[in-house]
Amino acid sequence: MHDEYPFVIGTSGHIDHGKTALVRALTGVDCDRLAEEKERGMTIELGFAPLELPSGITVSIIDVPGHEKFIRQMVAGAAGIDAVMLVVAADDGVMPQTREHIAILSLLGIKNGLTVINKTDLVDEDMLELATDDVKNILHGTFLEDKPVIPVSALTGAGIAELKNELQKMTEKAKPRDRKGPFFMPVDRAFHVSGFGTTVTGTAIKGEVHEGDEVEILPQKVLSKVRSLQVHGESVGQASAGQRVAANLAGIPLDGIKRGDVIAAKGRFTSSNCINVSVKVLPDAKPIKHWQRMRLHVGTSDSVARLSLIDRTVLKPGDSANAQLITETPVATHIGANFILRNYSPLVTTAGGVVLSAEGERPKNKHAQKALSEYLKRLENDASLKERIAALADYKGEITVQDAAEANEATPLELMRAASPSEARGEIFIVRDGSAVILSRSRYAFLEQKLSGVLSSFHAEHPERMGLSAEECARALGISDVKFARGLLQLFDKQGAIVYKDERVRLAGFEPFNEDEIAAAAEAIKKLALKAGASMPTIEEAKNAAGITDETMQRVISSLREKKEIALISGTFICLKEVEMDFRKKLEEISGDLTLAAIRDATGCSRKYMLPMLEYLDGIGVTRRVGDKRIITKR
Question: What is the DSSP string of 543-596?
Fold first, then answer.
């Protein structure tokens, strides 16, 4: 068994510049495996070989087609590579496909690589120098600009040892793919193995897969099990990101899977007809119009898509923008996947970019368009899971933890861990009851404000009731899941906006009263006021005598005044209606002038109570003061 290292090097370059011969010289493997390729002398399909480096580690090498007609396969191969070996023939120099391949590799986010000038056996020193200068000019401003340029001859073997050393250095410097996380592998070949059934090959892009794992085939969303695994023809118990993998699948007929499909960890990825992307047009390409029909290459898939621009009608050469790809058939991809866009006709590479989220939703109006634009802007620059959750919450307002996890290719547990700091800072709110839901700060504030308004109206109408039930609150807020509503009410209670106690909800400052208790207190105060007669008790005296709280006293006064059973004299004295009528009757019975002395004698009332009472009667028009006397105006 080779000391397998998860790293994939892809060849790239113009047709007939000797890529396959170079791979053969490096590995001893002839990648032209198809009869048609032998006959035509060019690579049509992707070829794979193990490359043992001087240190003894083995990496994968992909021989990618160079002919213009086979750009689709070239993109499929490039999708899984970690580094590129650009091949230019010394006798031909830079050709049109050389330029297009460099553009495609740049758009696919490839950062590592080197350039090989092949067929040095066909040219003299001067010609080789010219070819080298030609190559360095074309590489200026690209990711290969400061990378090695190695002259070799695949035919004679000259320079091959030096090339292997440079490939060794490049592999050691490069950051390996992350093996953690869910498995994702685009399929580049599917075939039948007699006695075993359907086998697929591809480059693992993410995560790990083990023999016996249950996997999902996308976009079909069909489940299968991995019967066995191979890496470069040798059986293994597991395979990981950065390796060339062959997987034998259980229960899948050969016509049930094809190139462009994906083998992925069960339930972790999705397929969609709407993909949120960041797109960049090549500087020398033609402008792309909104809704232009294009060919989309992502992973190993080749499909037709419309480019839906969010905030403009055209993308000019060199421009970048966030957009949506609306595909004619569902496409399975992942966050961070690089893609290529080619004109539908003629087939020319025009643009490329990166997937911001693998499943989008087309905006229905300008408000939704603006929200989408703001959301995608926050997903740029490789946003962390924590940042993605906060952005998604603000975009949706309200989303279940399950849906948020699926949108971010995470498990609910991973999502909750990542969301914890944002929740602690009050940037988002999480309701854990029922279908666990994440709320944005604005959505939370809206629901809290709406509930406060509902409760305020309810308390005004029903001051005697303890509050609304959770079910009534759910209906008022338009929430069908009562478990979720209860969780939300608990959150409001925790934040101090309301009180949620004994299955009743009330505003934090509201204290309900018991009508029976109020009625009993009112009767006690009426008896007290009747007994006191014209020597009226004050509110404080009545409250203390009845043994009730200030709040209960206020409600008793309010209730008795509303029923017109009492009047408040000077805002202080409690005057029962019967006492007031008796006082008025005694005034009417006085013969002669209504002087203070005459009124005192008739009513037996001291000045302390008599003056406030007379002022009250003046105020309601029963009496009128004339000098030191009064006259009765209303009997």
Answer: HHHHT--HHHHHHHHHHHHHTTSEEEETTTEEEEHHHHHHHHHHHHT--S-B-H
Q: Is 501 exposed, middle or buried (0-12, 13-18, 19+ CB in 10 A)?
A: exposed
Q: Check pLDDT > 80 for residue 64.
A: no
User: From CA 597, how far away is CA 557, in angstroms rounded?
Assistant: 32
Tokens of 341: 């866009």
Helix (H) and strand (E) counts in the chain: 19, 33
Helix runs in 360-440, H state only: 366-379, 385-396, 401-407, 412-424
Confidence band (pLDDT; 50, 70, 90) for 324?
Answer: very high
Q: How far apart are CA 129 and CA 146, in angstroms?
A: 18
Query: Cα separations (Å) of 11 from 14, 20, 77, 98?
Result: 10, 9, 9, 11
- So what's the pLDDT on residue 572? 94
Residue type, 345: S
The label of the residue with tokens 């794992």 reads 213
Q: What are phi and psi of 443, to 5 degrees?
A: -65, -40
**pLDDT class of 514 with cuts at 50, 70, 90:** low
| Cβ-based neighbours of 154, under 8 Å, separated by 6 or more | 18, 21, 22, 24, 25, 118, 119, 160
> What are the C-alpha distances in Å from 141 to residues 106, 112, 283?
11, 14, 12
Residues 237/265, Cβ–Cβ less than 8 Å: no
Cβ neighbours around 474 below 10 Å, total: 20
Among all chains, which residue has been given the structure tokens 């759910």? 474
342 phi, psi to nearest 5 deg: -120, 145
The count of C-alpha atoms lying within 13 angstroms of the C-alpha of 591, restricted to the half-sphere facing its C-beta, is: 0
Burial of 536 (0-12, 13-18, 19+ CB in 10 A): buried
Torsion of CA 364, 370, 373, 376, to 10 degrees: -80
Instruction: Report the Cα–Cα distance between both ends of the chain, in Å, rounded.
Output: 118
d(CA 88, CA 62): 16
Rounded to whole angstroms, the Cα distance separating 416 from 222 reads 28
d(CA 312, CA 214): 44
Burial of 29 (0-12, 13-18, 19+ CB in 10 A): middle
Q: Would you say 279 and 287 are in contact if contact means Cβ atoms under 8 Å apart?
A: no
Tens digit of pLDDT for each residue in 181-239?
899 999 988 988 888 889 998 888 899 999 999 999 999 999 999 999 998 778 999 99
Which domains, and CATH codes, for the chain? 3-173 (3.40.50.300), 184-265 (2.40.30.10), 276-368 (2.40.30.10), 395-512 (1.10.10.10), 521-632 (1.10.10.10)
Residues in a beta bridge with 49: 61
Strands laid side by side in the 3-12 sheet: 47-52, 57-63, 3-12, 83-89, 112-118, 149-151
Which residues on adjacent β-strands are paired with residue 24?
A: none
* Cα–Cα distance, 2 to 270 (Å, whole number): 35
Tokens 């190139």 belong to residue: 259
Of the candidates 463, 619, 611, 608, the residue with the CA atom closest to the CA atom of residue 541: 608
The candidate with the shortest Cα–Cα distance to 204, out of 215, 212, 193, 195, is 215
